[in-house]
TrEMBL record:
GO terms for biological process: proteolysis. The keyword Signal applies. It comes from Pyxidicoccus fallax. Gene3D superfamilies: 3.30.1380.10. Keywords: Carboxypeptidase, Hydrolase, Protease, Signal. GO terms for molecular function: carboxypeptidase activity. The keyword Membrane does not apply. This is D-alanyl-D-alanine carboxypeptidase. It comes from the Bacteria. Residues 151-182 are annotated as: Disordered. Residues 46-150 form the D-alanyl-D-alanine carboxypeptidase-like core domain. Residues 1-23 form the signal peptide.
């Protein structure tokens, strides 16, 4: 009789330990988060993953040369920061926030910018140019949220912007075209 109890005890112990081992293996297979990647300061103490930061800095400089200011309000977030934002959102105390573990802010690949709404010069510049730097808008309800996704963000065709609009100057507007032919 004690042998039967011993067998049941071993079986129960195996049933309790097996899920822990499986969870540990699953954790090893998950995609690495930003904590393993190098984070780089981009602006106002905000950080992004190294490649995203380099692309953002190039985009920021390009915007600046065209008279547009790109100001960062949020970059990388720790799991604790994301959890806090998500809990505030769930309680109706803050803006929409992704569940912890589902935000590219935690990977250092998302940046929130001061853009106003979709009719501002800043937003218009981003919509027209961000794809050239690997950034795109991924949340329809958040015009300020841009993610670095260079592998899946298409560069514009030659002579076009990210919205597919022609960027070549109109020949009729050039000084040579306005010259009197006589």
């Amino acid at each position: 009789m004690s042998l039967a109890f011993l067998r049941w005890g071993v079986l129960i112990l195996v049933c309790l330990i097996a899920p822990l081992a499986t969870a540990a293996e699953a954790k090893k297979l998950r995609r690495p988060k930003a904590k393993g990647a190098k984070l780089v300061h981009v602006q106002r103490g905000e950080r992004l993953q190294h490649a995203a930061a380099a692309a953002f800095k190039r985009m920021h400089e390009s915007a600046r040369t065209e008279g547009v200011s790109l100001r960062v309000t949020s970059g990388y977030r720790s799991r604790q920061e994301q959890r806090w934002l998500y809990e505030r959102y769930r309680k109706g105390l803050g803006p929409q926030a992704a569940r912890p573990g589902r935000s590219n802010h935690q990977r250092g690949l998302a940046v929130d910018l001061v853009v106003g709404d979709v009719s501002t010069t800043t937003y218009e510049w981003l919509a027209s140019n961000a794809c050239r730097f690997g950034f795109r808008r991924t949340v329809a309800s958040e015009p300020w949220h841009w993610e670095y996704r260079p592998r899946t963000t298409r560069a514009p065709a030659k002579g076009q912007d990210c919205l597919g609009r022609d960027t070549t100057p109109d020949l009729q507007d050039t000084p040579l075209a306005k010259k009197d032919p006589s």
